[in-house]
């Protein structure tokens, strides 16, 4: 008989404790509390598909949900849809919806709601910002209460990224709330299914969100309240964070990165370089219809390396494409448009501009991103070397957006643009047939290349179409990047559970406070 080895009681206790320690020591999320956020700009409204601006769609992502979303690794993740089927080689998408989900107003989310939201986006009277992305859809059919079928005009690989990541995604609004408030007032009364509800909005002061106690994701959100405190100056946001007056700071200025990184009480949050500082000319103006002028001033006339080093303190990469380096499908155009003032002057002279007939115009920007006025000033100085006379106009961001999108009374823009998921996600801004057509062009080849991306049924074909699209835009300088860089955020060390989403989304549903 083989005798077993006996263990002493103290040893048994030691083993049990050692096995339990990881579980015992693991921090469990604490419910409750108010997250105070230093927010860089007010919003123009909180309508899912009509309110422009990065800050607007960061906020609405906390109030609404899409059928699917993305995670930090850019994988597609189910949200209001539990699953989906891709049929007929990418021509048909069937979404199986969650049951029991309710809007903030108590009404039910179901397949008919999804159909209504789609119809709202494509209704010409609505003038939805993201309508071009859905032009590939031929029909939307309610299969049953919790199943919805999208049939495309042709197989396409664009539908899922559009719904998950482009702008705010395919966010679902309560039809009942739209009926109650109407198109014009929906931006003031957003009603979604999201983890938070709008409680208060004092323009240019604070946006307060409160917990949705009936959120469909078990246990979420942890926070009772979020206060988005409008602090337009970057130094004000950083100072408030370091002093403990706020818990979280959005859009951290580059000049404060080193100091924050050395502060043991602060977490600096940084991801892929998905945003871009861009510039473009208004092609309604005769001078800027000439490709030689655009190539001179947006191509050879910009010293991007100096801008990245000086205005962005070396925390950005020079960019000649309009697709940031951290986005899917980016290609670099390092061989195009090296800084060459002589070449720029020669092109301007060909176009009829020289010291006897100098080109004069206004460059418009805003202070929502602290580096923009500095970049505009550097561009003015670089253009002066070419004999070009520029007046820099720095205006409040809401007015900037109105003039850019509605009034269109500008010559050149210098702007911070939203995080780009892939080349197609930016197409809305320059499609002349729908969407913004921010640059006011009439180049049919641009639209044809956008259609090629839409019609690409495979990932390989989609990437190739995206490459060709980027190259044409760069060669003809329809619009351009100046630098790409990561979206920077910072939080105090007691902020837990926040997931940095590279500037694609700013969502606080899993965030909690360890205090």
According to CATH, the homologous superfamily of the largest domain is Dipeptide-binding Protein, Domain 3
Q: How many extended strands? A: 21
Q: What would the CATH topology of the largest domain be?
A: Dipeptide-binding Protein, domain 3
Rg, rounded, reads 25 Å
**Unreliable parts:** 1-25
Q: For the residues shown, what is the average pLDDT? A: 91
Query: How many domains in all?
Result: 3
Q: What's the CATH architecture name of the largest domain? A: Roll
Strand content: 15-25%
Shape: globular
Supply the CATH class of the largest domain. Answer: Alpha Beta
**Distance between the amino and carboxyl termini:** 59 Å
Question: Which structural category do the helix and sheet elements fall into?
Answer: alpha+beta
Could you estimate the helical fraction of the residues in percent? 25-40%
- Helical stretch tally: 16
- Which sequence of strands runs across the widest sheet? 8-9-10-1-11-19-12
């Amino acid at each position: 008989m083989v005798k077993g080895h006996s263990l002493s009681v103290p040893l048994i206790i030691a083993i049990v404790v050692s096995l339990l320690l990881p579980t015992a020591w693991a921090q469990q999320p604490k419910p409750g509390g108010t997250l105070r956020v230093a927010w860089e700009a007010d919003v123009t409204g909180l309508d899912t598909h009509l309110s422009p601006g990065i800050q607007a769609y960061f906020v609405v992502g906390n109030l609404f949900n899409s059928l699917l979303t993305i995670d930090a690794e850019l994988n597609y993740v189910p949200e209001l849809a539990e699953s989906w089927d891709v049929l007929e080689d990418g021509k048909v998408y069937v979404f199986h919806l969650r049951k029991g989900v309710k809007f903030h107003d108590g009404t039910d989310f179901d397949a008919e709601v999804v159909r209504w939201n789609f119809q709202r986006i494509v209704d010409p009277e609505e003038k939805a910002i993201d309508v071009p992305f859905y032009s590939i859809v031929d029909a939307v059919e309610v299969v049953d209460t919790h199943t919805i079928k999208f049939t495309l005009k042709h197989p396409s690989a664009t539908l899922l990224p559009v719904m998950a990541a482009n702008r705010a995604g395919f966010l679902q609004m309560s039809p009942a709330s739209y009926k109650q408030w109407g198109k014009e007032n929906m931006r003031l009364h957003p009603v979604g299914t999201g983890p938070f509800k709008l409680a208060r909005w004092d323009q240019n002061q604070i946006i307060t969100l409160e917990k949705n106690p009936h959120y469909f994701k078990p246990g979420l959100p942890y926070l009772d309240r979020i206060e988005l405190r409008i602090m337009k100056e970057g130094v004000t946001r950083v100072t408030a964070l370091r002093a403990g007056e706020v818990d979280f700071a959005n859009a951290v200025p580059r000049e404060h990165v080193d100091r924050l990184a050395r502060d043991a009480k602060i977490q600096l949050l940084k991801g892929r370089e998905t945003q871009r500082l861009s510039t473009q000319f208004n092609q309604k103006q005769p001078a800027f219809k000439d490709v030689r002028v655009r190539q001179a001033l947006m191509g050879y006339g910009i010293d991007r390396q100096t801008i990245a080093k000086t205005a962005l303190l070396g925390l950005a990469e020079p960019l000649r494409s309009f697709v940031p380096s951290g986005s899917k499908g980016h290609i670099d155009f390092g061989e195009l448009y090296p800084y060459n003032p002589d070449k720029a002057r020669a092109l301007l002279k060909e176009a009829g501009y020289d010291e006897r007939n100098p080109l004069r115009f206004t460059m418009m920007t805003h202070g929502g991103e602290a580096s923009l006025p500095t970049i505009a000033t550097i561009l003015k100085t670089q253009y002066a070397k070419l004999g070009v006379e520029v007046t820099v106009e720095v205006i409040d961001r809401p007015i900037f957006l109105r003039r850019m999108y509605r009034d269109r009374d500008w010559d050149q823009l210098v702007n911070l643009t939203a995080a780009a998921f892939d080349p197609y996600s930016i197409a809305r801004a320059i499609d002349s047939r729908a969407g913004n057509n921010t640059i006011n062009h009439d180049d049919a080849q641009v639209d044809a290349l956008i259609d090629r991306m839409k019609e690409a049924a495979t990932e390989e074909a989609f990437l190739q179409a995206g490459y060709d699209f980027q190259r044409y835009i760069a060669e003809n300088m329809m619009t351009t990047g100046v630098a790409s860089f990561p979206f920077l955020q910072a939080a105090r060390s007691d902020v837990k559970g926040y997931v940095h989403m590279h500037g694609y989304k700013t969502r606080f549903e899993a965030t909690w406070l360890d205090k």
